[in-house]
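Reopening closed ticket. The problem is back. First fold of the pair:
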Amino acid sequence: MSKLKASAIAPSNIAFSKYWGKIDDELTLPLNDSISMTLDTIFTHTTVEFGPQYAKNEVWLSDSKTKATLAKDQKQARVLQQLKRLRRLAGVKDFAKVVSHNNFPTGAGIASSASGFSALTAACLAALNIQVDKKQQSILTRLAGSGSATRSVYGGFVKWHQGKNSESSYAEQLYDQDHWDLANIILVTESAAKKHSSLIGHARSKSSPFMVARLKAVLQHNQDLETALKSKDFQLLGQVIEQEMFSLHAVTMTSQPPILYWNGTTVEILHEVRKLRDQGLESYATLDAGPNVHLITESSNIKKLQKHFSDFVGVKQIFVCKVGKGVKITKQHLF
C-alpha cells in the first residue's frame, strides 16, 4: 500500500442559518456567519493516492444514482485546485488519483459539496502527512471552494465564523452530537442535479433587492439559534429555521436573473408541514439551494413523519438522519 494513500468519510450537514453570498470568491469568505447540524447517515467516502504512477490527476465521482465517471469542467477544476494547494503545502509534486462516492444524490440540494470537499481535504491531509488542528483543517477545507464543507469537519452543532480574512474565517463546534436528540428527515422530490448550482446562486445574490435586509436579519437569527441550542428550545429553533429558509429563497427568487429552486412538491410539503403542526405533529421545514425539503424534528416524531410522507405524492425517497460526528479517516479504501 502506498504511503501517500488515505481515505476519509465526511458527513453532510444541514444549515439552520444559511451561507449565501461571498465577500471573496477566491478565499470563499462568506457574507455572514452560519450555523448547522451535522448529519449521521448521508456522507461522502473518498480515497486519494499520490504517486509517480499517475501521469496526470484523475478524479472519479459516483453517487447513489450513478456509476463512477471521470469528473469534468467545474467539478474537476475545484478538486484539482485543492490537490495543487495541498501538494504545495506538503512539498509533493506527484499527481493523484481521487475516487469519491456519495451515498445520496449529488448536486440536488443535500449539501453534497460539503461532505465531498471535507472528505477530499481530510484524505489529502492524511495521505500527504500534513498535521493540522481542527481549526486549521476547517480553514483548508473552506479554501477548496465549498464554504459549507468547513462545517462538516465537526460533528454536532457547528458555527462557521464569517471572518474578515482567511485565518479568521473558520468553523467551530458549539455542541457535540450528544447535546440534543434532533433528527433531519430529508424528503427527496428531485434527485437529478439542479439546473443552477449554488456557485451561480452565490454570484447572483447581491443583485436581489432583498439581500441587504437578509444580511441584517441573519444577525438576529444566529443569536436566536444559539439561544435555542443552548436551552434546547425546539419551537424557537424551528421558527428561526423556517424564517431563514424563506429569507434565503426570497433572495434566490429575486436575484437577476431569478432562480427558483422549488418544484410543485416542495410547495405542497411546506403546506403539509404547517398542517401537521396545527394537528400536534411538530416539525419545521428548511431547504438549501434545491427542491428537497429537510424536516427538522425531535427524534420521537421520526416514525410518524416518515410514515406520513412515505406515500406523499411527489416524494421519491426519504433519508432519516440524526446528529452525526465529523469527518474521519478510514482504512477502507475505494481502490
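Second fold of the pair, where the issue appears:
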Amino acid sequence: MTTGSGHPLRIALVCLGNICRSPMADVVLEKKLADAGLADEVHVDSAGTGDWHRGEPMDPRAAAILEEHGYDPTRHRAQQITSRWFDDHDLVLTMDGSNFDAVRALARTPRDRSKVQMFRSYDPVATPGDDEVPDPWYGGPSGFEHVLRLIERTSDAIVASAPRLVEELAR
C-alpha cells in the first residue's frame, strides 16, 4: 500500500510544544499501525508549532501514562514543524484549532493547506463543538488519562481509514 508517488502514507501530528499531545498520539498511532501490520505502509512523525522544547524528551507525565498503558515513549525528542514538512508529509493532523491555524499559516500552496486537518476529525464521537484534544499540561494525571483515551479512539479510526487515505492520495 503506497501513495501515488510510491512512498508510504506519511502523517504528521502537531500540537503546541511537541511534548504532550502530539508525541502521545505519535507513539499510540505507531503502535496501533504496527499491531495492524501497517507499519511499513504508514509512517508517523510529530512536531510542535513552537520551538521551546526542541530536542527535549516527552513530558514525564505524558510518558508515565503511556508506559502505564503499555506504550514506549522513550525515543521521542521534540521538534518544530516548518513549511518543509509539507514536502515530506501527506497529512498533517493538528490537536486543536490554534495549532490548525498556525500550521495552515505555514502552508505555501493550496495543496499544502489541503493536507491540514484536525486530528479528531477521525474520531467517530467528535462533534463540531468537541473536536480538539485538550492540552493536559496544566492539569493532573486525569487530564493525561483523558487525552490518552481520545488519542487511542481516534488512532483506531485512523488505522481503519488508512487504506482509504492511501487510495485517495494515489489519485
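Update: turned out to be a display glitch only; the data is intact. The mean pLDDT is 94. The radius of gyration is 15 Å. Please close again.
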